[in-house]
Design goal:
The chain is an alpha+beta fold. The protein has 1 helix and 3 strands, in the order αβββ. Strand 2 and strand 3 form a beta hairpin. A 3-stranded antiparallel β-sheet has the order 1-2-3, with helices on one face. It has a domain of 43 residues.
Length: 70
């Protein structure tokens, strides 16, 4: 039985940021995640910023929908 290393076969994406997210506000983090999904080939939409624990980002690729909430 073969094992693969974590991240093997994944493409590195330049996101233009350091990987320290502790300084980001929740809104900035949502924008960062939306940019990341966009670079991964998704169409993204950030929903209006409210503290309702609902979907913050809607990502679509090939007629499949994904959502993220914080």
């Amino acid at each position: 039985m073969g094992h693969t290393r974590a991240g093997e076969g994944m493409e590195e994406i330049d996101i233009g940021m350091q990987n320290d997210f502790s300084d980001l506000s929740p809104k900035e983090f949502e924008e960062f995640i939306a940019r990341l999904f966009t670079k991964m080939g998704f169409q993204t939409e950030i929903t209006p910023y409210v503290k309702d624990h609902g979907a913050d980002i809607i990502a679509k690729r090939e007629k499949r929908y994904y959502s993220s909430s914080s």
